[in-house]
Structure prediction request, 414 residues.
Amino acid sequence: MKRNIILLILFCLCVSIGRIQASKFPESKVPAVKDVIDFNRIRKIDRLLEQAVAREALPSAICYISYNGKQIYFKTFGLADRENEIKLRKDAIFRNASQTKLVTTVALMTLYEQGLFKLEDPIKKYLPEFSNPVVYVSGSVAENNLVTRPALGDITIRQLLSHSSGISYDKYGQDVQGIHYPGQITTEEAVKRIAQIPLKHDPGEGFTYGYGLDVAGRLAEVLSGKRLDLLIKERVLDPLKMENTYFYLPLKKIDKLIPLYQKPDREVPATLAIDSLDRFYPLAQNQLYFGGGGGLSGTIVDYAHFCQMILDKGRYGKKSILSRKTVEQMCSDQLFGNQGDYQFGLGLEIATEEDFARTMKSPGSLRWGGYFGTEYMIDPENKLVILLYTNKVSWKSDDDVWGDLLRTVYMSLK
Prediction:
């Protein structure tokens, strides 16, 4: 009898331990890298990018790919500085341009999680300069014949982050700059100028790419009581160990900024970009304007950390930047069918079934790029982060190197 009781106790212990082990190690494990990636195929990226640089489809290139948080490809191609024959380094700093938009979105969404605003709030509640939006009809300020009409509704925060507000990059002759303003203009002053630009269409009635995230950056300042650069550093850059990303580079890191090259005609060789604003704005010091739509510069590894956080639904290691459901909301279509099959979330584009049929991009993949040749894609289905950076402006080429790279990566999946 005593022996039976002991056996029963041991059996119960084994069952309990089994349950603990089952909860600790779920049945659906993530496959190992070697079971997912064909490295003989992924090495074809070497030749792809070597040839692209050699024929001047790109001035140089750096590519970073990770699977489930593990780096599986990281190489550079070509010269960072052609005049001085300096090879491109992995820690080179690139102008992120519009890749800034998603960083600004994440910083703003941390305030959303604090309950400081609702996505349906009209922005005039916090930025009164947007109290009476108007829609463009004809003419321009420069020709003194601008015609507008009252908008049929107010701009909401959701519309800002999904580019459906009607705010565009068309200035209609208004005194508005893009990435950097000369002089000591503040973010507040810059956004007040943006508020004077007529909308391309009524709020919520289409997708128009423009200054919306610059406005969102100012909104984040008002809601948090902090300058945008400090808020982004506190909420995004520091937690994600993005140690080489800035609006304006500190003096000790200016030598890492990669030069910009131009090729305005396919038949002419690449040369250093002429536009000093494009080339030198990250080096400005003591500035007060922080462009939430395009002002950051940083390394490819820094942005890979950021993409990994999105892939891991708001977490980076043991740190929680956003909740899982907030990230899922960001990655859902916020245009609600207004653009047909085209989908855009909060701060990023969403691949559809048609995109897969045409380009092999997995449905639900998330991407955007920057004006100077930076691209990223986050693929939740295949647990991939893919980044390709280059340093070009006014560049004529018939090549789709980014598309070729994506196909090569996808054809490497087992």
